[in-house]
Specification:
The protein is mainly beta. It has three helices and 17 strands. It has a single domain, classed as Jelly Rolls (Sandwich), CATH 2.60.120.
């Protein structure tokens, strides 16, 4: 081994450089890979993968592939992260209702302490965007109101759930969803206990009369639209979306946010 001062300096420089790279992180591989390990994962979508017709595959292999509607376009954020761009007029992706999307929060295949529902991803609302659905399995009728994440049109995020008779809503704090900026958006339902909404790691909760189970509706799952009054369509973007038939803990949601925020300048 060369023990000359210059050789030792070269080795030290390599070690420091490698340490800095590890500290800076994450890699793109981690950004995409970290969502694959979520408990009860029923759907995981990255817009960078799509077929010739704009269909985005479900990476859980549960076949919840997102169909292409309108004329959204695929683009690249900050030279790294692909995203889907919607113009607020007819653009959305969807998958037909099926058993994997009928999440009630009472699934006995999930351990009791982890039963519930969590959904979310990275979203963006264009300047002065109106009220719009981000992810939803929802309709006007109570029998079709299962779960939804919605941009309020006034810089807040809402998470909604329904039991077939009543609906329940929790709204994030003022200015928590700025226009023309990326936001890590999450909604979580704990049966009979609480519903939470997270924006960039900040949680707001609602715990009054929370239902023991969600309604098993026949509505399709939609990204970029909420199928209610005036078809609340997103004028904005999304870069990753996930759906889980389980509770993702606060600590893991915080980890997901902090290990992916660098790619979005947040």
């Amino acid at each position: 081994m060369d023990l000359s001062p210059q050789s030792q300096l070269n080795r030290l420089d390599k070690r420091v450089t490698r340490g800095e790279a590890e500290a800076i992180g994450p890699t793109l591989g981690e950004f995409y890979g970290q969502f694959h390990g979520l408990i009860g994962l029923r759907g995981l979508w990255y817009p960078g993968i799509q077929d010739s017709g704009g269909v985005i595959p479900d990476l859980t292999l549960l076949n919840n592939n997102l169909g292409y509607n309108g004329n959204p376009t695929l683009a690249l954020h900050n030279n790294y992260v692909p995203y889907e761009d919607y113009d607020g007029t007819g653009d959305f992706h969807s998958v037909a209702d099926n058993a994997t999307l009928d999440i009630l929060g009472t699934e006995t295949t999930i351990a009791a302490a982890s039963r519930g529902l969590t959904l979310g991803g990275w979203f963006w609302a264009d300047a002065s965007a109106p009220i719009a659905g981000l992810m939803s399995k929802w309709s006007n009728a109570a029998a079709g109101q299962s779960y939804a994440l919605r941009y309020t049109g006034s810089n807040r995020l809402q998470f909604l759930v329904g039991d077939g008779v009543n609906s329940f809503t929790v709204t994030s704090g003022a200015a928590s969803f700025p226009n023309a900026d990326w936001v890590f958006c999450v909604g979580r339902y704990t049966p009979s206990t609480v519903i939470d909404v997270f924006t960039n790691g900040t949680k707001v909760s609602f715990s009054t009369a929370i239902p023991a189970a969600l309604v098993n509706s026949t509505q399709q799952l939609e990204i970029g639209r909420l199928n209610a009054v005036n078809l609340q369509e997103l004028d904005g973007r999304w870069a990753v979306a996930f759906l889980c038939a389980a509770l993702i803990p606060d600590t893991q949601l915080t980890y997901l946010f902090n290990r992916s925020r660098i790619f979005f300048g947040v």
